[in-house]
Amino acid sequence: MGSFDVSQRIQDGMFNATSLLSQWNFKSGSQKQMIHFTGNQTTKEFIEVLETDNDVKERNCVLIQTRGKNGGTWMHPYLFIDFAMWINPKFKLDVIRFVYDQLIQFRHSAGDNYRGLTSAISRFTNVNYSQLAKGLNYIVFDKHFEGIRQSASQDQLLQLTELQKQLAFAVDMGYIKSFDELINEMRRIWNLKHKFFLK
């Protein structure tokens, strides 16, 4: 991670926080201690959030583990990233910039592919662009309201991008020959994706 060596255990994915902290203190000349992070109220609140997260609970993940006198402190990847941002402000900026840039990139990509899809179907008669947008939202989010895409996750934006790209390809190749056929295909996709919830 930059100029620092990061150790991760293969068996459980935990990261060695003690090693990273030692390297940081040596390089920066600071005197940060593990207790400064683990005893921080913000850290305690974040751990509480992780403990109630469904993904973490389902995987029975250990969040933090201290092994003996010299075994060091090991952390779950989510907590380790928070820890790394705490000890290294530059890394914190890198993480923020990466997340921001990725989400912006996916939003732009989703927007570009929506324009590509609307361009492809512009040759059809009786095109209802509002119905199209609504159908796309139902497939990806299983609901629709104005501005829903502004709160979309990275995964949802990726799904939206791929869906729009595939539908535009089907139209361009002549597999879908009318707006009605497009809507029927979207209904079929929605049913395949959400049929589990219809039972």
Brief rundown of the structure:
By secondary structure, the chain is mostly helical. The protein has helices at residues 17-28, 34-38, 41-52, 54-58, 77-87, 89-121, 129-141, 154-172, 179-198; strands spanning 15-16, 64-66, 73-75.
Word description of this protein:
The protein has 199 residues and is mostly helical. The protein folds into two domains: 15-87, no CATH class; 94-198, no CATH class. The protein has helices spanning 17-28, 34-38, 41-52, 54-58, 77-87, 89-121, 129-141, 154-172, 179-198, and strands at 15-16, 64-66, 73-75. Strands 1-3-2 form a three-stranded antiparallel beta sheet. Strand 2 and strand 3 (73-75) form a beta hairpin. Helix 5 (77-87) crosses helix 6 (89-121), helix 6 packs parallel to helix 8 and helix 7 (129-141) crosses helix 8. The mean pLDDT is 87.
Topology:
Elements: E1 15-16, H1 17-28, H2 34-38, H3 41-52, H4 54-58, E2 64-66, E3 73-75, H5 77-87, H6 89-121, H7 129-141, H8 154-172, H9 179-198
Question: How much helicity do the residues have?
Answer: 55-70%
- Strand runs, count: 3
Our measurement of the CA-to-CA distance between the termini, rounded to an integer number of angstroms, reads 47 Å
- Please tell me what the overall shape is: elongated
Separate helix tally:
9
Instruction: Give start-end ranges of low-pLDDT stretches.
Output: none
Q: Spatial order of the strands in the main sheet?
A: 1-3-2
Total of domains: 2
Q: How is the biggest beta sheet arranged?
A: 3 strands, antiparallel
Strand content: under 5%
- Order of helix and strand elements from N to C terminus: EHHHHEEHHHHH
Structural class: mainly alpha
Mean pLDDT, as a whole number?
A: 87
